[in-house]
Amino acid sequence: MRGSRREAVAVVALLAATAWAYLWDLGASGWANGFYAAAVQAGSQSWTAWVFGSSDAANAITVDKTPGALWVMGISVRLFGFNAWSMLVPQALMGVAAVAMLYAAVRRAAGPRAAMLAGTVLALTPVAALIFRFNNPDALLVLMLVVATHCVQRAVERDSSRWWMVLAGTAIGVGFLAKMLQAVLVLPVLAVVFLVCADMPWRSRLLRLCGGAAGLVASAGWYLLLVEVWPSHARPYIGGSQNNSIVELALGYNGVGRLTGEEVGGLGNLNHDVGWGRLLGGEMGGPIGWLLPAAVIALVAGLAIVWRRPRTDPTRIGLLLWGGWLLTTAVVFSWMNGIVHPYYTVALAPAVAACIGIGVPLVWDRRTDPRCATTLAGLTATTTLVSFILLQRHPSWLPWLQWTVLMVGLTTALLLVVVARLTPRSAVAVGAAALVACLVGPFAYTVATAATPHTGAVPSAGPSGGFGGPPGFLDISRPSAQLAATIAADAGDYTWAAAVVGSNNAAGHQLATGAPVMAVGGFNGTDPAPTLEQFQDYARSGRIHYFIAASMPGPGRTDHGGSDAAERITEWVEATFPFQVIDGTTLYDLGA
């Protein structure tokens, strides 16, 4: 009873600390990613925009993702009003839920001590603190992947309900509705581990796997079917596609194109750092690299310890599930040639945490074995060296920390080699010091991440100007008060108060005015929506008031194919309508 009470107190403390870290000063980032914030605003004004994830309440074009995450934020802002807090709180709560679900999953596999370590590592991962305080769809994706893995752990047990696999497939499907095909990266791992390790006859395994597939198809397929059968003239254009098709979006721009770099209408290949070093490099190292080598070492060592156990052993199954997730996702992220951003690595965070949570206690409990003692020492030394290298990339930020981590880490690593000769109390003290040395680097970066406001489409982890894109990279436009007032005046007399090329440009003006602003060409300005003929019809029928002349945000933007409709529309407007310049921005009056 006393142990149960202590565990309950520890879990409550972990979740409370996580909630504080993710909720503290949450509104400091304002609209965060204004591209998604504008879609949330549109969903709060129009149910059609909410269903389809439209960028504006007049439903010209959708965001370039399925709208699962927008649905959650949209319901919140409808209940509590549209502001930064009502939009971002659901994201933070998803982070707390992910830590809680990871704790439950790892506890089932390896007990409360392993679960507490795993939950702590996830909460202290910088990219997790970044994404669970931001409005990108990755928060819902990660939560659903953790839920799915936990359900599979339940499903493999003897006498488990057949509904666990259905729930696992359903969770993957909801993850698909958040970020499309990225959700299915772990699907082969979950399916194979269940087939091999489930404690039931083969026939039952196959039937339940089919149940999981049915749950996936039902939870994700209904939306694809809805969009495909809905009359295209009665819904917004599917942003990110070239043929107004959500299937094309899922398989192309947000699917195979991310692996090959052949994304029509995208930004072209971003494979300058492709290879095994990417996850520890200058862009991805800060968000996720701190404990990545430790997770691999813990995974290998843990599997070596439990490999001869029965195939139904829960600890062995846990390592296979989380280790498979870790390795599969790491390989894909390292070698994909298309659009990939550092914050994507949040999909690695639960797997890193679980492998460390399960593997390290297994090795620690056998520390009197020279092989395990050497493994603990190597893990500690490797982790502190990685922390030292990552901290040196920000030499002006807490310069004392990098040397402290290195000295304490290497000292404890040497002591761990001879840990069998230490007294039990001394061994625990050395182990605790080694753990602190390994975690203090990511802890400091997590605190810095939470304390730093983030805006733009590519937020960065760490202190201001940290790893990722530059501050405000691919951010929304910031119209002056006079320009916003001009656009907002008489906005109710038009379907769209204004139109502008690019979703980030449109989002900034829409958030400033509260009125629908058409994003010509979608996110990159390369979608054929609207066509020149459609735009001319909108203008001549008095549905658009202004056209805003603006360049696409983001340095060095290079189009990778796609429609040139936006360029043709701009040329036609410039040759046809009168304009005025307000605070440096050229505004064409289509209603003249």
Automatic annotation (TrEMBL):
InterPro entries cross-referenced by the UniProt entry: LipidA_mod_glycosyltrf_83 (IPR050297), RgtA/B/C-like (IPR038731), YkcA/B-like_C (IPR056785)
Biological processes per GO annotation: lipopolysaccharide biosynthetic process; response to iron(III) ion
Membrane topology category: Multi-pass membrane protein
Annotated keywords: Cell membrane, Glycosyltransferase, Membrane, Transferase, Transmembrane, Transmembrane helix
Membrane spanning stretches: 82-103, 115-134, 163-194, 206-225, 288-307, 319-337, 343-364, 376-394, 400-420, 427-445
Domain Glycosyltransferase RgtA/B/C/D-like: from-to ranges: 64-218
Subcellular location as annotated: Cell membrane
Domain Putative mannosyltransferase YkcA/B-like C-terminal: start-end pairs: 484-575
Annotated Gene Ontology cellular component terms: plasma membrane
One Pfam family hit: YkcB_C
Molecular-function annotations in GO: pentosyltransferase activity
Protein name: Glycosyl transferase
Organism: Mycolicibacterium confluentis
